[in-house]
Specification:
16% helix; 41% strand; 2 helices; globular; alpha+beta
């Protein structure tokens, strides 16, 4: 009986995700997007680009989940997430992973269909406190699929690096993304798990002594 109760408590007390950084899209007054893909089918700027936006956490944290908003010319779920250091622009790459996110389609308050993507990183990224980082979301499908990273509030801007020999661009607006951390199981859950093991062991001992 006690074992069942403890297991039930463990089941209903998962560790919630903590939002580390949030820049949602400007839904009521959208400001467009920044191309971040090998193709530019719906862009007025020719060439292929990789878009980046900066973030800075006040405390050290492990980034386990990333969410972002975008638009595309053709459906594609092949993305590349990279993290760089740098002050005024991305310089040194620290992290890169190919991911296939979960996608939800949004149609409200935006001139075209927008996708909301979420993914748990294959390898979490440990971000140091008070350090300038740059997040890059890149659709690495192939030529023929144009993808744009939806812009957020005005903020301090973003950076668009050319990967086709053209000039880089400084973007006036921030880009829309969120960073989250799903913490390790709480101490309370670990204590309950230990107690469950002890109760199970005691029950087995009583059965053997009968």
């Amino acid at each position: 009986m006690y074992l069942r109760l403890l297991l039930a408590l463990l089941w209903v007390s998962p560790s919630p995700a903590a939002t580390l950084w949030s820049q949602p899209p400007k839904l009521n007054a959208p400001t467009g997007w920044a191309v971040s893909s090998p193709d530019h089918l719906f862009s007025t700027v020719s060439g292929s680009f990789r878009a980046h936006d900066n973030f800075r956490l006040s405390t050290s944290a492990t980034i386990t989940d990333v969410a972002w908003w975008g638009v595309h010319s053709l459906p594609s779920d092949r993305f590349e997430i990279s993290i760089y250091t740098g002050v005024s622009q991305p310089v040194d790459m620290l992290y890169r992973q190919s991911v296939t996110p979960s996608t939800t389609t949004w149609t409200r308050n935006f001139p075209s269909t927008m996708q909301f993507h979420t993914v748990s990183l294959p390898i979490p990224f440990l971000a140091a406190a008070n350090t300038d980082y740059w997040l890059s979301i890149f659709n690495n499908y192939s030529y023929g699929v144009g993808w744009g990273w939806v812009r957020s509030q005005d903020g301090d801007g973003a950076f668009q690096r050319s990967i086709s020999g053209r000039a880089d661009h400084v973007i006036a607006n921030d880009l829309a993304f969120e960073l989250s951390e799903i913490p390790e199981p709480s101490i309370f859950s670990q204590i309950l798990l230990g107690l469950s093991a002890l109760i199970a062991l005691a029950s087995l001992t009583r059965l053997r002594l009968r």
